[in-house]
Amino acid sequence: MIGDRIEDVTGNVNDNLKCVLSRLRAAGASRVFAKYLRRNNNSRQQIYLARGDWQALHALPLGPIRRCKPAAPPGSSTAHTRDNYKASLDFKWLDVHGNLHHAPEAQLILYPKYPEIRLGSLQARADWAPHDLLSEQSDGRVLLLGIRPDGWIIGVLLARDSLAAMEFAASRQQPEDNGVLVEIPISDALDSREELLRELARIHRLGWIGSKRLNPHGEVVPCKALHCGGYTLEAELGIIPNGRADPDYLGWEIKQLQSRSITRPLSGGAITLMTPNPDGGIYAEVGAQEFLRRYGYPDQRGQPDRINFGGVHRADRWCDNRPKGGHCTTIELYGYDRASDRFKDPVEGQIRLVDAQDNILASWSIEGLLRHWQRKHAKAAYIPSEAAKNPQRYRYGHLVTLAEGTSLSRFFRAIADGRIYYDPAPKLEHASTASPRCKERHQFRTTPADLDALYDATEVIDVLAART
User: I need a surface site. Which of 73, 222, 329, 450 has the fewest CB within 10 A?
Assistant: First the structure.
């Protein structure tokens, strides 16, 4: 019976969407995506997520992507079949009692030929799953995917005539949304925005704040590095520094930019968007220290026995701001088709740093970048700051820039147009000694003037005037 199926999956037949989202939040989800299912989205034919782009890869935390050779029908050759790709998922079903049931075979299947992405094996070896609804061939079911900060995906499947599914359909002009995943707020969207603005107003009113940071145990300790403005702001917000590709505060990525005056919105300067280490090229093959010895140059500010590798590197611009003694290089988007504004194959695509002899000095796989960019930058807050010395301290402006909505297409287009550039800063100190010290830092940066190109919407907010 349909009523039984609703009870099995969502609890009370009258559970509204807010109630189901609350259940996902209680299971640890910090973001929720919805997929309107058509009749051909079922356990036999897999669940179609996207066609024509790779948006689903931006949203979902994936395991390693592996190449797979499709099985050919008996008696036929595999010579003309095109490889597919699969990525494992850490997936659990959520039942009405709040219990989580692991689906160990869950995976995404990528078909580069179309391109197309499907979600499969959600029932295989699972100790519980909504089997009847998964096999049902009908329009109107809704699959909710809750994303937890630890990378687990929590699934709930809504029957087509459940109140929650009908509410979702009524909230969309086109409920099917061309088959793509749609993010829906897990709580009142204004709650996190207003709380963020309230906290930024409080921090602004504090005036000068002594340089500090939080250690891994959440304890406040002094920050003595040259640039501690970001750490100090994060410490006030209770953010412990980490390398995870997740937003910093209530779903918002927090970025501060040192400015000449905090009475104006962001202006000038460089904004560091992300700092991923290369996962390919000579750098990854030989390691940071050997790479610096081969391609670095002596520090130009007089620091003895130090080797640097720096300079601004933009796509298709050779020797841009090359330091004295540095190699002539450029950034190349390998596999990127400017006309269609995407990588034809996200597994084979790369951002590369190449020299004049076509050596690949360093490269970043699209697989690695897509894990980071859209998850971390779906919502971002940019805050101007001022610094002072003796003692080292910072204060933060009341005119902040909130940016929402992004995609890998925007990210790659901005690289292709030179709006995002690679600005590395790895260094090798005490290079000639028996105990050299190596520091890695690979920065992809932009400017305040180019933020509009990275997001669907940007807005300057006066936190003192906002409703707090």
Answer: 73
